[in-house]
Write a structure and sequence with these properties.
With 701 residues, this protein is of the alpha+beta class. Helices cover 25% and strands 31% of the residues. The protein has a 9-stranded mixed beta sheet, sandwiched between helices. The protein has an 8-stranded antiparallel beta sheet with strand order 28-27-24-33-32-31-30-29, covered by helices on one side. Strands 3-2-1-4-5 form a 5-stranded parallel beta sheet, sandwiched between helices. Helix 5 (89-97) runs antiparallel to helix 6, helix 12 packs antiparallel against helix 13 and helix 13 packs across helix 15.
């Protein structure tokens, strides 16, 4: 039996595995890079071992160091989590050779599914439907669009959609570079790309002797940049025969490699033609595994451990699990292993959807989601009325979101008797959450969950490729912005008054003989981006709030706004007779960064100083780094004449490459970065002047 388990991973999945271990009485060991030394998963473990190395992003790829850490801490088993070494057959071999228990499939199964190219051949032989392979030489115009995909790894890295054959060689080169950086393997392949397809995957659990249990399917069709955004179980709107065929194909796939433990077989479902094709098999636990746990009432980590120990992993025996989910009433008596209700999961990311989903970095100052019933534990089997909320998070308030790892903050999962109930409750919880400090995709998630397309089950994998769709769900409510800024101005004045030893009894903003209103200016605290990845601070709108101070502050420009109550943390406004309370949070001692939450939504503001320091100004045409990262390519130099949209350099952050393009035609007047340079978010990378070279020389003369 396993007595002490080391998790060869970090963040949310490490905390998730530790939670099951605590319940089962198994000791836990964490490994960490220097960047993660104070992370929550390190504090959660019974023991922690530092992994040496100067490159935090590569630290968790050192299998030899991880095995040495297990020996040093007295661990007798290793769980790989997901990502990093979780699907590395050589690491699995090394763990087993070291005499440790490997919580995962056999190394041979990992090898068989590790190459997507070889896996497709194996699946075709097993009778599983697959898409055909193409090459730059064999692809023709009728095959378009095409998908370039990394043979190793996943998560959308190394994937490119090609709609013009002339672009195929260049996109293959980019995909290879991303795959090499993310997985250490630059092998890619090309296949037909199905427009408007759905991503449906099947959860399997094998005993390593050909017996495979199917635990239903999940729909993961809502994606951005080929990375999942919302997942749910069961998949909505599947014809009964199609569901049977999917489960059968998944069972064949897992049995073909004598699969052991928990795994996922992924399919691309062509809803228009009611057909599906094998995509890949993830020989590990999936990020979205909680929705299956909630619907089936099982702990997949516990089942993984049971298989690894050679115990009976199926609760109440195999007969307790129906082969398929048809015929199971949502109101049937609950028992582990029987499907019940519906679960929806969202991935809360530190990213700006309006800026091409650019990852964001910074301090997470607040993470408070109302109504959460449990963290990392089932809510579907508890005493929840109408549904329960679960939070699986790798960070807590006060943690820094950096550039070395994935930008996911948390997974929020809701289980309810019906799909509609789960989506509505989850959307309400997210809308009322306090998530401060950096830009997130929260507003997009709320909009998606409440959209007709989602509620009617009409989503597909390319829906969020349309910028108009993303913009419609990500736009900040105008009233939330204007009234939030007014509330922030009043609350900041109240805060300054209450903190002063001399003005505590004087009304906020009071003047003896006022000649004009008070003026407080904010900007929405988000780095906007132009298309092509070029960041600019010049297009962030300013919000100028004019207001009169006194015992009852007044809005100088809106007669329909009445202040009912005002304090340093809350301001209650009546707008056209409708009262709402605005909660104001200040995250710094100087009152510059302000978050306002209200029933209208959340707005993050940055207060501007009354007088601007000339050194803080950015020249027109400046291209700013959309996030901290490393320069991996430079395609232009000072003096070059460039066209609008022409790539100037490539920035890599969080294993993804971002092309920085010219915002307009002109001449490059500044470019002070080189390949290998590390840059901070907001740093000036280059300047493109619209004036002709000769005109600038004449002006200087």
């Amino acid at each position: 039996m396993i007595t002490k388990l080391l998790v060869a991973n970090r963040g949310e999945i490490a905390r998730r595995v530790f939670a099951s271990c605590r319940r089962l009485g198994i000791g836990t060991v964490a490994v960490h890079s220097d960047a993660d030394a104070r992370a929550p998963f390190v504090r959660d473990a019974d023991a922690a071992v530092r992994l040496p190395g100067n490159a935090p992003a590569e630290t968790y790829l050192r299998g030899d160091l991880i095995i040495a850490a297990a020996r040093a801490a007295g661990a007798d088993a290793i769980h790989p989590g997901y990502g990093f070494l979780s699907e590395n057959a050589e690491f699995a071999d090394a763990v087993i050779e070291a005499g440790l228990t490997w919580v995962g499939p056999s190394p041979e199964s990992i090898r068989q599914m590790g190459s997507k190219v070889e896996a497709k051949k194996l699946m075709a032989a097993a009778g599983v439907p697959v898409l055909g392979d193409l090459t730059p030489d064999t692809a023709v115009a009728d095959d378009l669009p095409l998908l370039v995909k990394a043979s190793a790894g996943g998560g959308g890295r190394g994937m490119r959609i090609v709609r013009d054959l002339a672009e195929l060689p260049g996109e293959i080169a980019k995909a290879r570079a991303e795959a090499e950086s993310a997985f250490g393997d630059g092998t890619v392949f090309v296949e037909p790309f199905i427009e408007s397809g759905r991503h449906v995957e099947v959860q399997v659990l094998g005993d390593g002797a050909g017996q495979v249990l199917v635990l239903g399917e999940r729909d993961c069709s809502l994606q951005r940049r080929h990375q999942k955004v919302i997942e749910e179980a069961p998949a909505p709107g599947l014809p009964a025969d199609t569901r049977v065929a999917l489960h059968t194909a998944a069972r064949l796939a897992a049995a073909a490699i004598d699969y052991r433990g928990a795994g996922t077989v992924e399919f691309l479902y062509d809803q228009a033609k009611d057909r599906f094709f094998f995509l890949e098999m993830n020989t590990r636990l999936q990020v979205e595994h909680p929705v299956t746990e909630e619907v089936f009432g099982v702990d997949l980590v516990e089942l993984q451990l049971a298989v690894a120990e050679g115990r009976e992993a199926f609760p109440e025996g195999r007969e307790a699990f129906p082969e398929l989910v048809e015929g199971q009433s949502p109101r049937q008596a609950r028992r582990p292993g029987s499907p019940n209700g519906h679960a929806v999961e969202v991935r809360l990311y530190a990213e700006d959807p309006a800026a091409g989903f650019a990852p964001q970095t910074g301090l997470l100052t607040a993470l408070d989601i109302p109504g959460v019933s449990a963290e990392f534990e089932l809510v579907s089997t508890g005493s929840t009325v109408g549904g329960g909320l679960r939070l699986d998070s790798g960070v807590v308030a006060g943690d820094e979101i950096g550039t070395f790892y994935d930008a996911m903050i948390a997974k929020v999962i809701c289980w309810a008797p019906t799909r509609e109930q789960a989506a509505r409750r989850l959307a309400g919880a997210l809308a009322g959450a306090k998530i401060h400090g950096l830009r997130t995709n929260r507003d997009l998630l709320v909009g998606l969950l409440r959209s007709e397309v989602f509620l009617e089950g009409r989503m597909h994998t390319t829906w969020l490729d349309d910028p108009a769709v993303v913009a419609g769900f990500s736009a900040v409510d105008e009233d939330a912005m204007q009234l939030g800024a007014f509330s922030a101005a009043v609350a900041l004045a109240e805060r300054a008054r209450s903190a002063s030893a001399y003005h505590a009894r004087i009304p906020a903003g009071w003047r003896n003989v006022p000649s004009q209103p008070q003026l407080t200016t904010f900007v929405v605290s988000t780095l906007r981006q132009a298309q092509g990845g070029a960041g600019s601070t010049n297009d962030v709108p300013e919000i100028a709030v004019r207001w009169w101070g006194g015992r009852v502050p007044q809005h100088a420009d809106r007669d329909d706004v009445v202040v009912l109550a005002a304090g340093p943390d809350e301001v209650t406004l009546a707008v056209a007779g409708v009262a709402r309370t605005f909660h104001v949070s200040v995250s710094d001692a100087h009152g510059i960064h302000v978050d306002v939450d209200s029933p209208l939504g959340h707005v993050a503001l940055r207060k501007l100083p009354r007088f601007t320091d000339p050194s803080d100004r950015v020249a027109a045409g400046s291209l700013l780094a959309p996030m901290p990262g490393s320069v991996v390519a430079v395609h232009a130099g000072v003096g070059d004449v460039v066209a609008e949209g022409q790539p100037l350099l490539v920035l890599e952050a969080m294993k993804m490459q971002h092309t920085i393009a010219a915002p307009h035609a002109g001449t490059v007047t500044e470019l002070d970065v080189a390949v290998g340079d590390q840059v901070n978010g907001g740093a000036v990378l280059a300047v493109v002047d619209t004036a002709p070279e000769g005109a600038r020389e004449e002006d200087q003369a």
